[in-house]
Amino acid sequence: MEPIFTGIATALVTPFNSQGKVDFLILRHLIERQIKMEVDALVILGTTGEISTLSTKERHSIIDCSLKTVNGRIPLIFGIGGNDPTNIINLGKYVATAAQNIPGQVGIMVTAPYYNKGTPNGIYTYYKTITEAVKLPMIVYNIPSRTSVNITPDNLARIATLPYIAGIKEASGNLQQITQTALLCPNIAVYSGDDTLSLPSYSVGCRGIISVATNLDVIPVKRIWQLYNDGKTKLALKCFQKELPFYQSLFHVVNPIPIKAELAKKGLIKNVLRLPLLPIQ
Q1: Could you say which residues of the chain have pLDDT below 70?
Q2: Given 2.40.10.10, 3.40.50.10610, 3.40.50.12780, 3.20.20.70, which CATH number is that of 7-265?
Q3: Which position among 97, 153, 156, 195 has the lowest Cβ density within 10 Å, counted as fewest Cβ atoms?
C-alpha cells in the first residue's frame, strides 16, 4: 500500500492544563505550529501523547479537534493501540467515521499487544482482525521496550502483506533488525521510531522518522533527512552528530517526560503529565 507519508512526522505530545485536563486550545496551537514548521505528518495519541492514560471520551475529543484543526493540510495518523482488539477496533472505527467528511490522508498506528505477549501467529492474526474491521491505512508499531513483545522481521514481512498495511514504525533500537525489516518489506514504508538512530536508519532503507525531537523544532530533523536524500551524506552526518546529544537527552528518562520539560521551558505547554509519569524541571 502507498505510504501515508514520507519524511518527517512528529509524535505529538498531549498538552494538559494545571488541573491535568486536556488543553485543547494549546493542542490546536501545537498543531498549527507544526504545520508552520512544514512537518510532513502528525502522529496523535501515540506513546508521546500518553494515550494509555486518556479516557475514551478524551481520545474521541482529541481526534475530533485534530481533524478539524488540520483540515486535510497534512496527513494525520492516530494511535489506537492497546491490547484488547475490541477496544482498538472501536476506536479505529471512530477515527474512520470522524474522518469521513474531512479532506486529506488519515491513518492509524497500532502497537503490538502489550502484556498479553501473543505468539507470532497470534500477533499476525491480531493485526489481520484489526485491518479487516477498521479499513484505514495502518502503521504497525514495534516498540518492544514498551510492549515486552518484539515483532520479528519475518513476522513483520508477513503482516505487511495484509490489506491496509501502509507502514512500519520500527522502534526496537536494534539497527540490525531495522535493516532486516526494510529488506524483507521492500513495498512497505519503514520508519525510524528513534531520533538517536534516524540517520543510520535512513541509510538502511527507512523512508523517514516518527520523531519526538520535532515537537520542539522540525527544521533540524528535516534538514538531516533532506541532506541525506540529496546525496550530501557527509553534511547530513555532521548535522546529525551536532543534534545527537539533544536526541539522547530526550530519552535519559521515560518519554515524554524530557520533551514536555523542554516545551514547558519554551512556554509552549504546562509541564504536566499523568501518573505514573512525573515532571522534571
Answers
A1: none
A2: 3.20.20.70
A3: 97
| Catalytic pick among 141, 191, 202, 228 | 141
> Do β-strands 7-11 and 208-211 pair in parallel, antiparallel, or remain unpaired?
parallel
User: Residue 232 catalytic?
Assistant: no
DSSP character at residue 215: G
Q: How far apart are CA 23 and CA 233, in angstroms?
A: 41
Would you say the C-alpha torsion 262, 265, 270, 276 has a positive or negative sign? positive
Q: Could you tell me where the DSSP H helices lie in 99-143?
A: 120-134
pLDDT confidence of residue 101: 85
pLDDT digits (tens, 9 = 90+) for 197-212: 999 999 999 999 999 9
Q: Which of 126, 127, 169, 270 is catalytic?
A: 169
CA-based R_g, the chain, Å: 17
2-52 per-position pLDDT tens digit: 899 999 999 999 999 999 999 999 999 999 999 999 999 999 999 999 999
127 is catalytic: no
